[in-house]
Input
Amino acid sequence: MRDDPGDDVPRIKHVAHDDISRRLDDSAPVANQAILQAIERMQDRSLADLQEAADAAQEAFRSWVEDPANSDRPFIECPAYVDRIAAESILERRLFTE
Output
C-alpha cells in the first residue's frame, strides 16, 4: 500500500524547448509577420511573464477599443494587438498541449 494516492499520477518530467515561431512559419504561411515576430520575441518567457504580458496587452487593447477616437478604426490597428495575440497563443499552447 502506498502512502500517497497521488503516486500513481503520471507527471511531466522534462519539457523540451518548442520554437513556436519557427515551427509556425515552417508549417503555415502567416499573413501578419508582426504576429510571428511578437511570438518569436515572447516564446522563451516564463508562464508568469507571459501572463503579465497578456494582461498588459489586454488592458491596452481594451483601452484602445473603448476610446471614441478609434471607433471607426479596425482593431488590428491597435498597437497592442500583435502582443495580445502572441502572448495568448503561447499561453494556450503551453497550458493545453504540454
Observations:
- Residues 6 and 23 are 35 Å apart (CA to CA).
- Residues 16-97 form one domain.
- The longest helix spans residues 47-66.
